[in-house]
Specification:
single chain, about 260 residues, mainly alpha, Helix Hairpins, two-stranded antiparallel ribbon, membrane, potassium channel
């Protein structure tokens, strides 16, 4: 009985059947719904139903986490992975409000669960032509959105309740975008020494990474051009020869005609 249950669970999490892929798509939908819930509930005081929903989400994450550990062949290695540690923190952050919101701010790390969806890339290539044609741009957009969300969530978690200018997630997002784009209107600022240090961190590390991700998004490093000899589709923008077979490729470039 136990071996049968383990085999069925392993097939859902690691298999290649249509049922397994539908199950992983459902997990992706749950992750996205969770993130939307975190954003929406930042705009109002948490009534009892929000606390109950927090607990339910935390228990669902616990069930998912327990199943992943159960089917993992290298349990110790799995438990020490950064994404697994993010899962543990997420569970605590959703359940913690019952103990007085002590770890409530850690719920922003639930966003890192998006990284788990990268295992669906091969299936996404098969199921969606749009994804297959614009994979690099879509991945860059996902990375950019995850980065902005984590940065905004960190600012909101650390400043909400102590900074009157950060009243909800939208205020934190506004500060994040104006900082990352170096616009800096100055109508929202982070207060105190900790706020200034956080601002320095966002400017020092965030601006560089933001610009890099934005560059990949709007000017991908790879272009689609089918090699006439081997059929390779992705090449460097300045490629003269196909990396796979060495044949000459004629990729159109920007500039004067």
């Amino acid at each position: 009985m136990a071996s049968t249950f383990h085999a069925r669970l392993s097939e859902l999490y690691e298999g290649s059947s249509d049922r397994a892929h539908r199950f992983r798509y459902a997990l992706l939908a749950f992750d996205l719904t969770t993130i939307l819930f975190v954003i929406v509930t930042s705009f109002f005081t948490h009534p009892l139903w929000v606390e109950i929903t927090d607990l339910i989400v935390g228990l669902l994450i616990l069930m998912d986490f327990s199943a992943r550990v159960y089917v993992s062949q290298r349990k110790l290695h799995y438990l020490t992975r950064p994404s697994t540690l993010a899962d543990i923190v997420a569970m605590l952050s959703f359940i913690a409000p019952l103990a007085g919101e002590g770890l409530g701010f850690l719920r922003i790390l639930r966003t890192l669960r998006l990284l788990h969806t990268y295992q669906l890339m091969n299936r996404l290539r098969q199921d969606f032509i749009l994804f297959r044609k614009h994979e690099e741009v879509i991945i860059a957009a996902i990375n950019l959105l995850v980065f902005i969300f984590v940065t905004t969530g960190l600012i909101y978690a650390l400043e909400h309740g102590r900074n009157p200018m950060i009243r909800n997630y939208a205020d934190a997002l506004y500060f994040t975008i104006t900082t990352l784009t170096t616009t800096g209107f100055g109508d929202i600022t982070l207060q105190g020494t900790s706020g200034r240090l956080l601002s320095i961190g966002v400017m020092f590390f965030g601006v560089t990474l933001f610009l890099r991700l934005a560059q990949v998004l709007f000017r991908p490093s790879k272009v689609r051009y089918e090699c006439e000899s081997c059929g390779l589709m992705l090449h460097d923008a300045d490629a003269v020869h196909c990396k796979h077979c060495g044949a000459v490729v004629h990729i159109g470039t920007e500039g004067l005609n």
